[in-house]
């Protein structure tokens, strides 16, 4: 290709994800990694792991990340972007520290990070940045020179993320029986988090009173619902609902739960529901179990027709969006003013997380932010 894209000052992209077990023997060690420091007994982890054992102890997330890697590399090559793409996980192989060590040995000095979480929150952004700081500190202790890492901005409202979800909802509606399709309700689902984490998500200066996690999801849900109305001529009722709660019962978490919502919609006379997991990048275990297994079982019990729309996954439009985000960030880092691409009312998110953004109960160093020790 004649017009090669120049990603300077960056020399690599790191796909940073959660990780998941790839066999029955991996399940408990994986959950030990996830819950490290919380003192949860192994027998309790075996109980929690039943979700994975139902599917042979394999989470789909690693294979889905491999598909996304292939999509990114193919898109970059097609568009003349010479930027190697690496992959590291927080909780399972390939581990983040090992991948960063490989990148350092390959001579990578300025790294962009794509996290498989599109929204602002402690668990969806700050915790990834803390993991980056921990890994960089460990490598520095080995005598290696830590590279600079920058995290790509939140992409929840990028057209390449939103449009595939719109198409997924349209496809799910089309699969419903004719007599219930126009009356179907849309349930936009995302991971429930503690109310306190939701309230303090995002920088106060951008969102006024915090609460970015819910605001961002509501903005995306509204974008999808509006697009569906424009393309079908039907104004489907919709609501943002939650799934995958894992906290202690006495701690308030975001509600309503998807199964409770299905019961409420059934009582209210809704003829059908499309579940759209807008909070997830791919169809990993929380989608596979909480929606495709648990929520669909609840719907069958109620006699309520449901469909579940697809996540973005390795859609070529998402891969193209990542390329656009890379070039947008590279241009700004090189001193060129560019207009960020974003839909909806909130506009593009910040490039650099400010001090105090999505705080943890026990603050730790975090990379790729205004207060980063590895800026």
Automatic annotation (TrEMBL):
Fe-coproporphyrin III binds at residues 59, 128. It holds the Pfam family Ferrochelatase. Its EC number is 4.99.1.9. Keywords: Cytoplasm, Heme biosynthesis, Iron, Lyase, Metal-binding, Porphyrin biosynthesis. Fe(2+) binds at residues 191, 286. Pathway: Porphyrin-containing compound metabolism; protoheme biosynthesis. Signal peptide: none annotated. CDD domains: Ferrochelatase_C, Ferrochelatase_N. It is found in: Cytoplasm. Belongs to the ferrochelatase family. Involved in coproporphyrin-dependent heme b biosynthesis. Catalyzes the insertion of ferrous iron into coproporphyrin III to form Fe-coproporphyrin III. This is Coproporphyrin III ferrochelatase.
